[in-house]
Write a structure and sequence with these properties.
8 strands; four-stranded antiparallel sheet; YacF-like; about 45% helix; 9 helices
Length: about 260
């Protein structure tokens, strides 16, 4: 089934911003590795390096443990609800428990095991690699990138497997969060829309536009309101404010809490 919509997602908490960034990085990597060319394998490897650098700046392990525990707590409360599919609920809880145990048992920072791989360890010391692979900066990386596409890909896929637990945790948390709410209809006169008194349990805002729409949203979120403003790009790719009505769908996702 073809989805004729374009989705924009905005985190309503800092940990969900990190989850969305990681999800996008994993998706980008997997699109690259499927191409299996010298250039795409080089980009895939640098994607892994950038991911390791990002994980070194944040305590993602602690954030995952907290979020998995929060999700488990909320789903546990549904056990007494007779309208809930018990089998489906138990499957959710089992999956969350396995991921929580993986995160608890993981030693050190996420990615530490891969940081010790000799080639990766060397690459992480080369700050200039952000501009691309050059033999004057890293001869060993330049040599690696000249391996046959299939051989280089096999190494890269093995290294990427180190992120399987993290990738699965991010995917499960975001999937469950997205399923917590359905889309509502919104209309933004002059390109502006306000959500008053958002629920404190909201962690993610999703905005759905038709693929034929040329506008895009920007969001400002606070404790008492969420403001959505629509813009468009002119022929020079300058961002301009939309001054006409925009019809769209939106969903505020998260466990509902009392206001």
């Amino acid at each position: 089934m073809v989805d004729n919509y374009h989705y924009f997602e905005f985190p309503l908490s800092q940990n969900y911003r990190q989850l969305l960034r990681l999800e996008n990085t994993f998706s980008h990597f997997e699109r690259l590795i499927r191409l299996n060319t010298e250039a795409s394998n080089e980009a895939s490897l640098l994607c892994i390096v950038n991911l390791l650098e990002y994980l070194s700046r944040i305590d993602m392990k602690t954030e995952l443990i907290r979020e998995l525990e929060a999700q488990t707590h909320q789903y546990e409360k549904l056990k007494s609800n007779p309208a809930v599919d018990v089998t489906k609920l138990e499957n959710f809880l089992e999956q969350l428990a396995k991921l929580h145990q993986w995160a608890i048992n993981y030693r050190g920072r996420l990615g530490d095991d891969l940081r010790q791989q000799p080639l990766i360890k060397n690459i992480l010391t080369k700050q200039s690699l952000h501009t691309g692979v050059s033999s004057c900066d890293s001869p060993e990386l330049s040599r690696f990138c000249r391996l046959s596409a299939d051989k280089a890909k096999s190494y890269i896929e093995e290294w990427y497997h180190s992120f399987e637990g993290l990738k699965t945790s991010v995917s499960v948390i975001l999937r469950l969060t997205r399923e917590l709410s359905s889309f509502e209809t919104g209309s933004a006169p002059m390109g502006d829309f306000l959500i008053e008194k958002p629920n404190p349990g909201n962690t993610l805002l999703r905005i759905r536009l038709s693929k034929h729409d040329t506008v895009f949203p920007e969001v400002s979120a606070g404790k008492h309101r969420i403001s959505i403003h629509f813009y468009y790009l002119d022929d020079k790719l300058t961002k301009l404010k939309c001054r006409k009505a925009v019809n769209f769908k939106y969903a505020t996702c998260g466990w509902k809490e009392s206001l």
